[in-house]
Amino acid sequence: MNLSAFNALDPRAAADAVRPALDVPRWIEAVVATRPYASVAVALETARTAAHPFTDEELDRALSHHPMIGERAAGDSAEAALSRGEQASLGSADATVEAELAQANLDYQRRFGHVFLIRAAGRSLPEILSEARRRTANTPEDERREVAEQLREIAVLRLEGMLS
User: Fold this and answer.
1) What class of enzyme is it (predicted)?
2) Using omega within 30 degrees of 0 as the cis cutoff, is the peptide bond preceding 140 cis?
């Protein structure tokens, strides 16, 4: 779908189209309500600022759609397909890095009670491992802010892919 097609959708269809980018109703409503967009850049700027800041409930809702980094998303939903594509771009790592990442995921999940979320696009597995370790030392408040920023980055990249 290109920008013109997105602008022409009825509100329900437009909401359904962007939901896989970030399933936060307030964000979806803001992105859909400010159409038509003059350019993809304007749409992406709206996506960056919409629903800022996220509530804890919105973060939890969005996190529920993301698998552990390094694990293949299951199912045939649009979100799962996007996640598989994003994680496939990471390539493979040696068994040591994969084992260390699995352990870092578990350590993070024990500390914060949810999956470690990071924008995978443009990152290597060793870089993601380093970030998982660093962020596990965050305070819960600091980590919520980092998770929110990662969700925004993921949503904007997904929306950009949808509109290109």
Assistant:
1) lyase
2) no
pLDDT of residue 84: 47
Residue 71: name the closest of 46, 109, 105, 24 by CA: 105
8 A C-beta contact, residue 77 and residue 20 = yes
Find, among 120, 115, 135, the residue nearest to 60 by Cα.
115
Q: Domain range for residue 72? A: 3-163
Q: What is the DSSP string of 81-93?
A: HHHHHHHHTT---
Residue 139 is which amino acid? T
Count structural domains, the chain.
Answer: 1
pTM for the structure as a whole: 0.85
| DSSP code, position 124 | -
> Are 115 and 67 spatial neighbours (Cβ–Cβ below 8 Å)?
yes
d(CA 1, CA 158): 12
Q: What is the CATH classification number for the domain harbouring 68?
A: 1.10.3330.10
pLDDT digits (tens, 9 = 90+) for 109-148: 999 999 999 999 989 899 999 999 999 999 999 999 999 9
% of the chain with per-residue pLDDT over 90: 76
Separation between Cα atoms, residue 99 and residue 108, nearest integer Å: 14
CA distance 135 to 5: 39
* Average pLDDT for the chain: 89
